[in-house]
Amino acid sequence: MPDRPGHPTDLPVEPQVEAPLDTVDTVDSPAEPQPAAEESSNRGFLAFSVLVLISAIGTAAVLAFTLPRTNNGGIVVGLLLALGFILAEQLAINVDVRGGVSWSITFCEIPLVIGLFVAPFEVVLAAHLIAGVGTLLIRRVQDRILYNAGAMIFEICAAFAVMNWINSALPAGVPIWTGVVAGALAAPLSSTALALVCVRILGRRMRIGAAARLFLRTTVLGLVNASVGVVGYQVVDHADWGWPLLVLALAGLGALYIAYSGLLREQRDLEALSEVSLMVARSGHQAAARPSLGVADPTEGADVTDADDWQVIADRVKDQLGAARVVLRLRFDPQAPMHVIGSGDDLPTDTVDLDATGPRSDALLRLPGAHVRHFRRVDSVPEIRQGLLRRGVDEALVAPLRSASHLLGVVEAHDKLSRWRGFGQADIRMIGTMASHLATALDNRRLMATLRHDAYHDPLTGLLNRPGFRRAAGDLLRRKADAIAECTVLRIDLDVLPAVSDALGYAWSDRMIVAAGRRLRDALGPEVPLARLEGGAFAVLLADTAADAVRETAERLRRDLTAPYPVDRLTVEAGSVVGYASPRTANAESGGEPDTPDIDALLQRADVAQRAARSSGEAVREYLPTMGQIFLRRFQLVTQFRQALETGQVKVHYQPKVALPSRQVLGVEALVRWRHPEFGKLDPDEFVPAVEAAGLVDALTGFVMDQSLQRVRKWLDRGLRISAAVNLSVRSLDDATFPDRVAAALERHGVPPELLTLELTESGVMADPQRALPVLRALHALGVVLAVDDFGTGYSSLAYLRQLPVDEVKIDKSFVLGMGTDLGDHAVVRSIVELGHSLGLTVVAEGVEDDLARDQLTAMGCDVAQGYLISRPLSESRLEAWLQARTTQARGKRDEMVLTLLT
Q1: β-strand 537-542 against 650-659: which pairing, if any?
Q2: pTM of the model
Q3: Nearest-CA neighbor of 40 among 216, 264, 201, 277?
Q4: What is the pLDDT of residues 231-258, one digit of tens each?
Q5: Nearest to 792, CA basis, from 779, 780, 801, 803
Q6: Are β-strands 101-105 and 570-572 bridged in parallel, bridged antiparallel, or unpaired?
């Protein structure tokens, strides 16, 4: 980009400011030009620069032969003019316009006016070229010398051509300074026009309004500078003692300039501090927002930062300090070397070991404090001088970036571009303040990265958590949109963890989870999204994996997880169950094409498949559409159950029980039935487990118990003592208040406790006898009859059975049904009858369906029979009809009515 120095409204003198005209209401400026476009733009600028220089030289040659010859001036005048131009360049003020782009205010028109008055064209041109090109070389602006040299020549040509044309066209008597002012004003306007053409050559566009404002500013400042030069020359030339007067005026202007430039410097410093802090914060936000796929360092998102972000920050610091080079050394990980980002001149290749520690460490980077240090080669100790020589610089500012706990990095600024004055106190304060802001922003960025990491990662294993898995998997699937159908979500559950926690404590259980996560990560690799969901449950997303390879992977992962775990000098065997789902099966339900999958939906389906595998005894199971229908139906049943109780969809049926051998009707077992308006008659085995899992079993138990006690009360009112048996859930044994609710129900209905039997499954009682024992004792103290249902199918302990306060056992119907044909079942039934009697318990046989079974049970001494031979479960109305049709009434010992089953 052109960088014409010495011009009031010119492109900035400092070579580090890029494309200044581009920020004043420009349009269609690409944010990040592609390398090919940038290379083409550079070639166009070079060609334009050559054209400008050749045209300028030709124009100067023509003017040298056509302009009137004068004898004014000489070498001394030329040297004084060159010195004036140099001073004007050094006193330039750069005003930031927008986005780090500045507008330069220089005073080159003042020495130009003097030259128009006292020197010929060739002398002024030579002085201007020497001052301008020399300044560019000192400031190391080597890539734009051709263009700027051409622009300088055009300025002098325009000034002399306009001055001579005005002076020759004006009538006699008009002062000569009129043409001088016009010529001095033509110089900056000509270079401004060239700059706008160059902007166009570089592919940028400036709005007409912005260009007009730029020309207006050029005109105003050019006119002011030219007027000052004319007034100063006239005062010195015509007034007695004009030189002292001019010196006083210039001293006042100089003081104003110093004050104004200081204010501008402070404004630029504040803007730069704010801009750098925002850059770091914005960069940290973007980096931290990128989730990783697996185990990650807590500082992740800080050390994997886009290099462009830090490069822009380094460029901005360099521009603000006016340094030849700025180096950012940033340490994101205490265990890793510093990241080095440079702006400006390249670092020498022998500085690659600057992070070495001990005797080989770099002297400039030993920063025990938090202050900026200023090193100069001329007055440094040998060790510091060697460090500066290794960097190839004469002076350096080094500022540490410190947080409250550790060193985050170092900022180095090398060699002030204005070598005649070097870094000053303002620069030291600036880099110190900027380092403080940068350290704070960087520390906040690290904190935000840590918080974001914690939000998306499991604190125990370092793997993704559920939100992190959802995010990482979604990003991966969006990048692989062409392979959506080939992606699969696996849910892997590790078993045996509760046993480890109970035996050895939660710490060892956590160690097993960490080991399991490490095994999965090693088996899958670092690029596969892996998450710990909860407990010993993990989730995996397999992308670009064919259907036949998914099961192999699932089997392999399950084998890896089930390998023995060494725990506290023990070897623990673990189980694992895997369920998986893919968009293939998901879309099979709707018959549609694979679409961007919902990760939560796939996780839910994988969980359904995992539970189906666990219930069926399989190790690996793929989700099928029928599974979803089953679980959806169960969900509907659970959500509609309370309404079904209130609307009368759920009813209680009763199956009679009779004494052997007298065939007296002793009681009934209450069995729940649900006729659903959509699904029809539902089997209790379908909805009761779902209701129990949903925590609604208390409502079901209370409903059945109230209905049964109402029926018993009606029988008592008729003089019949018929008991009712109600099945209990294992959850009821965990509720210490359940006995109180039973007592309240008995009292509410006025039923003696001995006419209520509570049946519990053998597996439910024996799973945790010590936990169930207090509730059972409380119920037994009420006088309620306690029965163990399905006896013989569980894993009961005779010792526990003897200790439990139960009154009867019910032989499971599977043994009773096979008793007539299987000698083994016959022996089991006989053993249970004898065992029950030996413990003083009543023995009830369910599943009696034929006369042979009834007769065999009678011969064994079984007390009570229940089954289809006697009656199927009946509704209340049908039970009353059955009692009237199949029983005979008689008076008992205490004048109570008893029912005896007719033969």
Answers
A1: unpaired
A2: 0.53
A3: 201
A4: 777 777 777 666 677 677 767 766 776 6
A5: 801
A6: unpaired
Report the pLDDT value the prediction gives residue 285, as an integer from 0 to 100.
Answer: 57
Q: Measured between alpha carbons, how far is residue 637 from residues 650, 673, 677 in Å?
A: 12, 13, 11
Please give the single-letter amino acid code of residue 76: V
C-alpha dist (Å) from residue 863 to 7, 497, 810: 118, 45, 10
**Residue 186 binned pLDDT confidence (cut-offs 50, 70, 90):** confident
| Amino acid at position 644, single letter | A
Q: What is the pLDDT of residues 710-752, one digit of tens each?
A: 999 999 998 889 999 999 888 888 888 899 999 999 999 999 9
Rounded CA-CA distance 105/529 in Å is 57
* Gap between the Cα atoms of 140 and 298, Å rounded: 43
Alpha carbon distance 151, 191 (integer Å): 6
Give, in order, the Cα–Cα distances in Å from 494 to each of 113, 517, 750, 853: 89, 10, 51, 46
Q: Is the pLDDT of residue 873 over 90?
A: yes
Report the C-alpha gap between 740 and 19 in whole angstroms. 86
Pair of tokens at residue 519: 């095994």
Nearest-angstrom CA–CA distance, 270 and 443:
20
Q: Are 603 and 471 in contact (CB under 8 A)?
A: no
pLDDT tens sequence across 375-404: 888 888 888 888 888 888 888 999 888 877
Half-sphere exposure of 257 (CA within 13 A, CB side): 15
Q: Which residues of the chain are in CATH 3.20.20.450 domains?
A: 648-901
Q: What is the DSSP string of 458-473?
A: -TTT-SB-HHHHHHHH
**What is the Cα–Cα distance from 293 to 215, expressed in whole angstroms?**
56
pLDDT tens track for 114-147: 888 778 888 888 888 888 888 777 766 666 788 8
DSSP assignment letter at 635: H
| CATH fold for the domain made of 277-348+359-456 | Beta-Lactamase (3.30.450)
CA torsion through residues 199, 201, 206, 209, sign: positive
Residue 62: the pLDDT is: 84
Q: For tokens 């330069």, what's the residue?
A: 104
Q: What architecture does CATH give domain 20-238? A: Orthogonal Bundle (1.10)
Q: Where in the chain is the domain with CATH 3.30.450.40?
A: 277-348+359-456
Confirm if 881 and 867 have CB atoms less than 8 A apart: no
Considering the four listed CATH numbers 3.40.50.720, 3.40.50.1470, 3.30.70.270, 3.30.70.420, the one that applies to the domain covering 466-623 is: 3.30.70.270
Of 255, 389, 417, which is closest to residue 324 (Cα–Cα)? Answer: 417
The strand pairing partners of 671, in sequence order, are 653
Rg (CA), the chain: 48
Phi and psi angles of residue 133, each rounded to the nearest 5 degrees, phi first: -65, -35
Ranges in the chain annotated CATH 3.30.70.270: 466-623
Q: What angle do CA 328, 331, 334 make, to 5 degrees?
A: 165
For residues 248 and 65, give the distance between their C-alpha atoms in angstroms, rounded to a whole number.
40
**pLDDT at residue 357 tops 60:** no
Q: Is the pLDDT of residue 441 over 60?
A: yes
Angle between helices 121-138 and 109-118 (to 10 degrees): 150
Position 892 scores a pLDDT of: 55
Of 21-30, 226-235, 293-302, 812-821, least confident by mean pLDDT is: 21-30
Domain spanning 648-901 has what CATH number? 3.20.20.450
Residue 713 CA, chain-centre distance (Å), reads: 64
In sequence order, which residues have a C-beta less than 8 Å from that of residue 506 and are 6 or more positions away? Answer: none
Ranges in the chain annotated CATH 1.10.1760.20: 20-238
Lowest mean pLDDT among 261-265, 570-574, 866-870: 261-265
Q: Which pLDDT score is estimated for 72?
A: 62
Under the phi-then-psi rule, with left for phi > 0, alpha for psi from -120 to 50, and beta for the rest, what region is 535? Answer: left
Say if residues 172 and 29 touch (Cβ distance below 8 Å). Answer: no
Q: How far apart are CA 701 and CA 69, in angstroms?
A: 122
